[in-house]
Amino acid sequence: MSPLLAAAPLPEVLPAEGAAGAAWLLVALPALGALVLFVGGRRTDRWGHLLGVATVVASFVVAVVLFAGSLALPAEERVRDLGLYEWIAVGSLNVEFGLRIDPLSLTFALLITGVGSLIHIYSVGYMSHDPDRRKFFAQLNLFVAAMLVLVLGNGFVTLYLGWEGVGLASYLLIGFYTGRRSAGSAAKKAFLMNRVGDVGLALAIFLLFVELGTTQYAEVFARAGEISPGALTAITLLLLLGACGKSGQFPLQAWLPDAMEGPTPVSALIHAATMVTAGVYLIARSNPLYDLAPVGQLVVTIIGAITLLIGAIVGCAYDDIKKVLAYSTVSQIGYMMLAVGLGPVGYAAAIAHLLTHGFFKAGLFLGAGSVMHGMADETDMRRFGGLWRHMPVTFWTFTAGFLALIGFPFFSGFYTKDLIIEASLTAGPVAGWILGGAALLAAGLTAFYMTRLMLMTFFGPERWRDLHPRRIDAADLEDPPEHYHPHESVASMTVPMILLAIGSVGAGAFLVGGERLGHYLEASLGVPVEPYDVPAVFYVGLVPYLATALMLVGAGTAYLLVGRREVPVERPQRVSLPVRAARADLFANAINEGLIARPGIWLSRALVYLDNRGVDGVVNGTAAMLGGTSGRLRRTQTGFVRSYALTILGGSVVLVAALLTVGGLGG
Amino acid sequence: MSALLLALLLVPLVGAAVCGALATREDLDRAGRIVGLAFAAVSLVLVVVVWSQFATGPGTPRFQFALSVDWIPAFGTRFALGLDGIALTMIALLAVLVPVVLAFAFTEKLPPGRTGAGFTALILATQGVLVGVFAATDVFLFYVLFEAMLIPMYFVIGRFGGPRRQYAAVKFFLYSFLGGLIMLASVIGLFVASDTRLGEGTFDWTALQGMAAQLPLSTQIWLFLGFFAAFAIKAPLVPFHTWLPDAGAEAPIAGGIILLGLLDKVGTFGFLRYTLPLFPAASQELAPLVLTLAVIGVLYGSLLAAAQTDLKRFVAYTSIAHFGFIALGIFAFSSQSMVGSSLYMVNHGISTAMLFLVVGLLIRRGGTSAMTEYGGVGRVAPLLAGMFLIAGLSTISLPGTNSFISEFLVLLGAFPREPVFSVIATVGIVFAALYMLWVIQRTMTGPLRGAAVVGDGPGAASAATFGGSGGDTGSDADESWMRRTTARFGDLTRGEVAVLTPLVALVLVLGFFPGPVLEVLDPTVSATLSEVGVADPVTPNGVPR
């Protein structure tokens, strides 16, 4: 690490005062909403969704007030701790339950409550036919509260509370349609793969405790230099394992596409805009540790690069609109991970991309939900086509998200993805080529799969005209619809889509322009370093042109392969090996199944056998032997004398043995 | 002050006697149950009073509320009682769970010819003896009560249990009794040793603890093993665990809760109170052995839990995994891990009680404990499924629930001194999620199946067609059929919710505000650590280098 890249010391942590003292309201409001809806049960069915929306919107207002207060302060006074109470105090361990109010946490709080509010509003319409809508809002409120604990907690243990809390909310919401067997499996898979990551996070916390005797951010970061280098590398790698689980990064990415079993607003909020970016937050938050651990940083960038390629490649092969978007999310978080591993040159870029991605990916998912809503819950793009005429608002807002995602010039993603590619070129002579090359290549692939999605869904012939809807909607069972009737969604759904589309268009230019975001985050992430100011493998000024060219190549290829040909309604089975591999998630599930799931089942079955025949067998065998002996004894004895005698005998033997032992050894 | 402790011991015993008398007449059965519940309530009030009087500041004596009278002067044994923080929390747990259990049993169907008052008497007797076990400060008194607690529990399983109750009860009794006999040898050994070293034979805990430093290691090891045998069977460590699934599966629900939630804690309590302070050198010497058994238990118990097909056996196996965590924390010798283990004993009692109760409520409806007979229960009984989820989340120590605090403290506290064992046990949290979510998936979610489908409505067909094809939420197609099924299977009644509510509250309150309990446990654990003679590994600045 060159001295130029070394981070300036972070500002001192001050106690929270004034409006920031009410920051607990941010968490308390949605938590209260969840509590009322869970405890109230069916009694709150009529107004539950309204309470759900109201609490999150109120929380957003609090976030805006806090953010304004933070802007008014000079940069070095923007990092505040709000201690609430002593949570776990034993011996030298003292875990405080408190909130960290600083630019990084407030940025996330705005994203979570802002996008969260829009998606809550959207869900009112989207879930209007579901008898369990109130339960849905309870769980969604629970998610928002947990996510806010995750980003606002002022130590690693409070982060862990939020971390597993969002895991629970995600589990419940993925499995929301409890009647579907696939939903149950997907939910369990998500939770389990997340827990694998959680082991890493837990062990990192233990190591911090060993090294520093504390797990609070303020002390850990101030004393990061005292940690031995070996332990520091271990801690950063373990935190990364946690991040991989939560953010669907290689090798723990396989749960995220399955998570699309949840209702689409859930996919938008949890599995695109917020929860899955928690891994990026964790590493950005731990920047004082990573800045001192070059090996840890390098591994983060490698994981990011691998994942962004995996996501982009697999995304090209799917026909399910939500799964394409899910793999796109995997890939885009790979970009953020890559950036956040680059250190001060990448932190702001990662957060900027995280924010713009939050807008455009949430918008894309809501758009996909709107399409599904109009198409009898169908997700197979082969059964779509020509929908732009039938759902104009959905189409145009979706297009804004599409252009932002592929990095079309001057849309949001264009700015933030460029920043990441530029930063990756400065990673070093070899790493710069590899990481930068991967990021550029994936930019082309992104354009390919997204253009394919656009063409299959909104353009071309209306393939659904001659088809019958397949999904049996509970409401429609009496009178199953004969045909698809695509239609535009209600205003409560389209308005959030329009607002997110505005973000998809303008957020990038706003955040990146004048380095607004980078400067604001200085107090949390250190002074940002410009890619132009450090050595790169080639002139970083070329990146926007290169990326745009690759984007056009990707989009053009998609047009030639998909747009100009007829799309078969049935999925072609005779395909080349690469396509087959991509359709099989690059064998991620097969590997998980073969290496972990099957051996695990065999092992537990073998253990059951062992436990019954082996361990318990020995026990019962001994008992039978004794029983046999006493049975033989019975023949020579009568009445109860036998049992007394046996007991006395046994007792005497034990006593004598004890006396001999103690006398012999202790005397 | 000490009168309060005596009252804590006597109230349940008197209650047991009264209920036992009422149980002889069938027409007084209901009265007997109510009287029993009243006695349990009095115990609860007494515990609250004792807790409020319990001092935690610096310089407090090792045992509070102490009381000691001559018992059998011939060999120096006294009827001596006293409370330390760990004993107090265990007695408090007892006082909370007994009324819950009795309230649950109020509406439980009993085997023919058995009376509820009789059952109540047995539970109260167990409670009384257990108070004595936790409060005894005389080793011989402890031994006597340790064996005595088998008797009411033997009858609880043998008279009120399931179809194989005789087998399970005898197995439970023999196993525990054998362990107790081995411990007796060590108890006598202690007496003999004290006679040699202190000039006068005694069973007084404090005197024996003072003698501990003089005992040579080899003697300590022999005596340690005697106590260890009893405790490792009681709080079953693999491979001494096989009686537990049978006893857990055959015991009536209420009895199973007392067995798993409280009786078995005597084993881990014994480690903390007897093996560690009385044989400090041996405890350190043999810690690797115990730690190995502990982490094997964590993984083995979890994997076996995942493979169970019977709900009650499933709960028993999860407990084996949890006892592994507790033993790990005790023998890792740090204030965090040992406070964690002590708290774990309380939390496991709460979460297992809740899990067992919910399983019991499920069995009330479905008539069987076979998992294969349930599916999609959440659709017909959402409240029950919600309670199962809360109990399950507490069992797998999700942050925000009570058990997280204890499991976190055990693993975090064990890590500095025993990193390998701590890491292996930490991996256990993945297995925990596996067994719990798998059971939830098989019974609570998914298509309606088995007992959840009551009658031969279209549900049987629709569950097969729609659910089987992985289709949609189709099986709620026929609304009226659904309503009928829901009504017949039945969600939780108000009374059942009321039984579970205190446990739900404890799960959440102790998850966010464990402070008051930690405060009570901390001084006792510090005292135990100094009796073992080890220093806390982590200072406020981390591990000293």
Automatic annotation (TrEMBL), chain A:
<dbReference type="InterPro" id="IPR001516">
    <property type="entry name" value="Proton_antipo_N"/>
</dbReference>
<dbReference type="InterPro" id="IPR001750">
    <property type="entry name" value="ND/Mrp_TM"/>
</dbReference>
<feature type="transmembrane region" description="Helical">
    <location>
        <begin position="490"/>
        <end position="512"/>
    </location>
</feature>
<feature type="domain" description="NADH:quinone oxidoreductase/Mrp antiporter transmembrane">
    <location>
        <begin position="156"/>
        <end position="436"/>
    </location>
</feature>
<feature type="transmembrane region" description="Helical">
    <location>
        <begin position="393"/>
        <end position="411"/>
    </location>
</feature>
<feature type="transmembrane region" description="Helical">
    <location>
        <begin position="136"/>
        <end position="153"/>
    </location>
</feature>
<feature type="transmembrane region" description="Helical">
    <location>
        <begin position="644"/>
        <end position="665"/>
    </location>
</feature>
<feature type="transmembrane region" description="Helical">
    <location>
        <begin position="20"/>
        <end position="39"/>
    </location>
</feature>
<keyword id="KW-1133">Transmembrane helix</keyword>
<keyword id="KW-0812">Transmembrane</keyword>
<dbReference type="InterPro" id="IPR003945">
    <property type="entry name" value="NU5C-like"/>
</dbReference>
<protein>
    <submittedName>
        <fullName>NADH-quinone oxidoreductase subunit L</fullName>
    </submittedName>
</protein>
<feature type="transmembrane region" description="Helical">
    <location>
        <begin position="266"/>
        <end position="284"/>
    </location>
</feature>
<feature type="transmembrane region" description="Helical">
    <location>
        <begin position="224"/>
        <end position="245"/>
    </location>
</feature>
<feature type="transmembrane region" description="Helical">
    <location>
        <begin position="324"/>
        <end position="345"/>
    </location>
</feature>
<feature type="domain" description="NADH-Ubiquinone oxidoreductase (complex I) chain 5 N-terminal">
    <location>
        <begin position="87"/>
        <end position="137"/>
    </location>
</feature>
<feature type="transmembrane region" description="Helical">
    <location>
        <begin position="431"/>
        <end position="455"/>
    </location>
</feature>
<feature type="transmembrane region" description="Helical">
    <location>
        <begin position="296"/>
        <end position="317"/>
    </location>
</feature>
<dbReference type="Pfam" id="PF00361">
    <property type="entry name" value="Proton_antipo_M"/>
</dbReference>
<feature type="transmembrane region" description="Helical">
    <location>
        <begin position="199"/>
        <end position="218"/>
    </location>
</feature>
<keyword id="KW-0472">Membrane</keyword>
<feature type="transmembrane region" description="Helical">
    <location>
        <begin position="536"/>
        <end position="562"/>
    </location>
</feature>
From TrEMBL, chain B:
<dbReference type="InterPro" id="IPR001750">
    <property type="entry name" value="ND/Mrp_TM"/>
</dbReference>
<feature type="signal peptide">
    <location>
        <begin position="1"/>
        <end position="16"/>
    </location>
</feature>
<protein>
    <submittedName>
        <fullName>NADH-quinone oxidoreductase subunit M</fullName>
    </submittedName>
</protein>
<keyword id="KW-0812">Transmembrane</keyword>
<feature type="transmembrane region" description="Helical">
    <location>
        <begin position="31"/>
        <end position="51"/>
    </location>
</feature>
<dbReference type="Pfam" id="PF00361">
    <property type="entry name" value="Proton_antipo_M"/>
</dbReference>
<feature type="transmembrane region" description="Helical">
    <location>
        <begin position="420"/>
        <end position="440"/>
    </location>
</feature>
<feature type="transmembrane region" description="Helical">
    <location>
        <begin position="87"/>
        <end position="106"/>
    </location>
</feature>
<keyword id="KW-0472">Membrane</keyword>
<feature type="transmembrane region" description="Helical">
    <location>
        <begin position="345"/>
        <end position="363"/>
    </location>
</feature>
<feature type="transmembrane region" description="Helical">
    <location>
        <begin position="172"/>
        <end position="193"/>
    </location>
</feature>
<feature type="transmembrane region" description="Helical">
    <location>
        <begin position="141"/>
        <end position="160"/>
    </location>
</feature>
<feature type="transmembrane region" description="Helical">
    <location>
        <begin position="286"/>
        <end position="307"/>
    </location>
</feature>
<comment type="similarity">
    <text>Belongs to the complex I subunit 4 family.</text>
</comment>
<feature type="domain" description="NADH:quinone oxidoreductase/Mrp antiporter transmembrane">
    <location>
        <begin position="136"/>
        <end position="431"/>
    </location>
</feature>
<keyword id="KW-1133">Transmembrane helix</keyword>
<feature type="transmembrane region" description="Helical">
    <location>
        <begin position="253"/>
        <end position="274"/>
    </location>
</feature>
<dbReference type="InterPro" id="IPR010227">
    <property type="entry name" value="NADH_Q_OxRdtase_chainM/4"/>
</dbReference>
<feature type="transmembrane region" description="Helical">
    <location>
        <begin position="492"/>
        <end position="513"/>
    </location>
</feature>
<feature type="transmembrane region" description="Helical">
    <location>
        <begin position="383"/>
        <end position="400"/>
    </location>
</feature>
<dbReference type="InterPro" id="IPR003918">
    <property type="entry name" value="NADH_UbQ_OxRdtase"/>
</dbReference>
<feature type="transmembrane region" description="Helical">
    <location>
        <begin position="213"/>
        <end position="233"/>
    </location>
</feature>
